[in-house]
Design a protein that fits this description.
Layout: H1 2-5, E1 9-17, H2 19-22, H3 53-66, H4 79-99, E2 124-131, E3 141-143, E4 150-152, E5 158-165, E6 170-173, E7 193-195, H5 220-229, E8 241-244, E9 247-250, H6 270-275, E10 279-280, E11 283-290, E12 293-298, E13 307-314, E14 321-329, E15 336-348, E16 357-362, E17 370-376, E18 379-384, E19 393-400, E20 412-419, E21 426-432, H7 445-450, E22 454-459, E23 471-477, E24 483-490, E25 501-509, E26 512-520, H8 531-571, H9 579-592, H10 598-604, H11 623-668, H12 674-720
Antiparallel strand pairs: 1-2, 1-5, 2-3, 3-4, 5-6, 6-7, 8-9, 10-11, 11-12, 12-13, 13-14, 14-15, 15-16, 16-17, 17-18, 18-19, 19-20, 20-21, 21-22, 22-23, 23-24, 24-25, 25-26
Helix pairs in contact: 11-12
């Protein structure tokens, strides 16, 4: 019904299939999900139907295009290397066969062949046929109803067909001795398919003769609509006939009409649709086992962490050794979209086993502009949306001298930062540290940054500056003791194979630091730098070195803050719920609120409660107290009505006074032209004022009538109040 509703030529097929298809056993099928969690569907609109003209035209077009294609070079492979690789593969296969555990398949083994099915070809099954022609469908395909997968009509899993039907007709298969893969699905062919129902065999003259009228395949009207339209008015309806093949069917003959559907209208509640899957344990999910993999689908907002899909890959057929786990999330406030946890090859399933690699992917919108976070024992990598960062940072890579221990400080080896679109054309920045000794406790990260071994900066080419003066790379060798070195490398000029460099060597002693500059100029006619220029540049470089260490500290602080934020977000995830879910939760919260007692609700809206004595609930009112309560209630109503009337009368008097004042001022003006210029504005003001005055007078009159009616109703209400019944005796 869904496929027909969106325009496909779909039918239900009644037939027979093998055991794995009937039981929806997909343990021998590859995982039908991609890396992003999307299903990998078979493309059915790109090919051509068998035997069709499109296939022939595509063949001719391919032959025509091949005349102008450059022939590809054959691969140049060494026969000796290929033979050697083949022998190595054979040796590995023999080794695995000799060392495999009995009863358990190895990583390279395939599944054991299925035992013969006793009911082969007799298992009843239904699936969907989508014929070519509509919605750009180029070939006939099957859609397996139990899994939703698209299959070819040549699939050997289907063993036979009894009939097909849709919302218009029912066709019986006459190809009894033909395999499914060799069947024809042309329902207009009466030799291979026999229809059951006739929709109608008569047409009014000239009716339904348009080009857009489509009849179901196999209907006699579809073949002879033209001849029916040419019938004259003198022919009676009883004499009209239709032809099916060589057989004539008269209207007076007994035919089967398509009965009305007895199925109720399909309705799925919104809450049930959002839940989508059945409850397994504590999760609302659907779990499916595939070949060396498993897919788990969860309903949105059914888990605390917002996971909607979990794909697990194994290295063995028995699904006991993990390779990686891909987790997809939705509606996360931290914008987490996907997490990939990769394990070492051959690791058995254990919740405490650490991952060899963790990759987290985020959607745009985070405050820190984080796009991807990758953690492994040897380092950490952070990728950012560089257009959302202030400095244009694209990536930050941290590598350690040894495997990271969560309980100890990170033994940093090198930190690399990559930029794009930096204001100073900076594209690369790195800091290298001395390797930590084996068995020693690494210092704090702050101390490691204060004593680096080397720092490096790389810049993009500035076309407005000459290459010999445009800095390309800047290196600070701060770990050299007792001297340090600063090395400057400039960009290559056009037609040059060498670049200009300058090296500053600093010697530290008691009397002060002394530097020496060693230049290398590509241009032999370049003027050497003066000593004062060398001194100024050296001082600027020393100050830049200190500032660079401070910048690395700031960057490290931000990276640590990002990791701490990620730990908090993983420990206590927060989901952003849709509007429908919020409204449902609000409605449920209101329904769960304890209801007020009837007496309290009555007291909350009791008109007489403010005027009754305090102990009126415990004992009956005396006649004197009842009279006082009645008089107080009437007096309060009277005062409120009088105040409302006074407000209306005051506004009416103000409008009348303003109109009178404006009229007097207008009449006092002289006749020198000012009066003519303001006449239009004056008329507009008078009309508006008179309209307001008229409305206020109507309100005053209406209030007088309502006040009398309200006062009269209150008197009757007090007389009928059971608490004041003593006044009626």
């Amino acid at each position: 019904s869904l496929l027909i509703g969106v325009g496909y030529d779909a039918y239900v097929v009644i037939g027979y299939a093998d055991k794995t298809t009937c039981f929806a056993d997909e343990t021998r099928v590859a995982l039908p999900f991609g890396s992003d969690g999307d299903r990998i569907l078979r493309k059915v609109t790109g090919g051509a139907r068998k035997g069709g003209a499109s296939a022939e035209s595509a063949k001719d077009r391919g032959a025509h295009d091949s005349l102008y294609q450059v022939p590809h070079r054959p691969p140049l492979d060494s026969s000796f290397v290929m033979k050697h690789d083949k022998m190595v593969r054979l040796d590995e296969k023999l080794f695995n066969m000799n060392h495999s555990v009995s009863g358990m398949p190895s990583e390279g083994d395939e599944e054991v062949a299925l035992p013969p099915d006793e009911l082969e070809g007799q298992r009843f099954h239904c699936w969907v046929l989508v014929r070519a022609g509509k919605r750009e469908m180029a070939e006939d395909v099957f859609v397996e109803a139990s899994t939703g997968k698209v299959r070819s009509t040549d699939d050997l899993a289907y063993k036979g067909v009894e009939a097909v039907f849709n919302n218009q007709n029912y066709w019986v298969d006459m190809q009894r001795k033909v395999a499914v893969k060799d069947m024809t699905w042309d329902l207009d062919d009466f030799e291979t398919w026999e229809f059951i129902f006739l929709q109608s065999s008569t047409l009014a003259p000239g009716a339904g003769g348009g080009e857009g009228d489509d009849e179901p395949p196999g209907s006699p009207l579809g073949h002879h609509r033209g001849s029916m339209a040419n019938l004259t008015d003198t022919k009676s309806v009883e004499e009209s006939v239709t032809v099916q093949g060589a057989e004539e069917i008269s209207d007076s003959d007994h035919v089967l009409d398509l009965p009305p559907s007895w199925v109720q209208r399909l309705y799925i509640d919104r809450d049930i649709y959002l839940q989508r899957y059945s409850k397994e344990g504590q999760d609302v999910k659907r779990s499916t086992a595939y070949r060396r993999s498993r897919a788990e689908l969860f309903a949105e907002n059914s888990r605390k962490d917002g996971m909607v899909q979990k794909l697990t890959l194994y290295s063995d057929v028995a699904r006991t050794k993990l390779i990686d786990v891909t987790e997809l999330f939705a509606n996360r406030k931290d914008k987490l979209r996907k997490r990939v946890r990769t394990f070492k090859k051959g690791v058995n399933i254990d919740q405490t086993t650490p991952e060899a690699l963790i990759q987290e992917y985020f959607d745009p919108g985070r405050p820190d502009a984080l796009q991807m976070l990758e953690e492994k024992p040897s380092g950490r990598e952070l990728t950012f949306y560089h257009k959302a960062t202030l400095d244009g940072m694209v990536k930050r890579i941290e590598s350690f001298t040894r495997n990271r221990d969560p309980k100890k400080n990170d033994a940093l080896h090198k930190v690399i930062e990559v930029f794009e679109g930096h204001q100073q054309r900076l594209k690369y920045r790195s800091i290298t540290f001395e390797p930590a000794e084996v068995g020693s406790e690494p210092a704090a990260v702050k101390m490691q940054i204060e004593n680096p071994k080397k720092m490096c900066l790389k810049f993009e080419r500035n076309p407005s500056i000459e290459a010999d003066s445009d800095l390309c790379k800047k290196k600070f060798y701060t770990g050299l003791r007792p001297s340090s070195k600063i090395h400057l490398i400039f960009h290559y000029a056009a037609g040059r194979i060498t670049a200009a460099t300058r090296t500053y060597i600093t010697e530290k002693n008691i009397n002060g630091d002394k530097f020496e500059m060693k230049p290398y100029d590509v241009d032999p006619f370049a003027q050497p730098m003066k000593w004062t220029q060398q001194r100024d540049e050296y001082q600027n470089l020393v100050a830049e070195e200190k500032a660079l260490i401070s910048e690395f500290k700031t960057a490290q602080y931000k990276a640590d803050e990002t990791r701490e934020t990620r730990d908090k977000e993983n420990n206590d995830p927060f989901l952003v719920k849709g509007l429908y879910v919020q409204l449902q939760e609000k409605k449920q919260a209101e329904a769960d609120k304890p209801k007020e007692e009837d007496s309290d609700a009555a007291l909350k809206y009791d008109y007489l409660a403010p005027y009754l004595p305090k102990l009126s609930k415990l004992q009956a009112l005396k006649k004197q107290d009842a009279q006082k309560s009645k008089d107080a209630c009437l007096k309060a109503l009277k005062d409120r009505l009088i105040d409302r009337a006074h407000i209306i009368e005051t506004r009416l008097e103000e409008e009348q006074a303003a109109l009178t004042k404006r009229q007097v001022g207008y009449q006092r003006q002289d006749n020198k032209g000012d009066k003519d210029s303001e006449s239009e504005e004056y008329e507009k003001y008078v009309n508006e004022a008179q309209f307001k005055i008229q409305i206020l007078k109507q309100r005053r009159d209406r209030h007088e009538d309502l006040a009398k009616a309200k006062f009269k109703d209150m008197i009757e209400r007090l007389q009928n109040d059971p608490r004041l019944a003593i006044l009626n005796h």
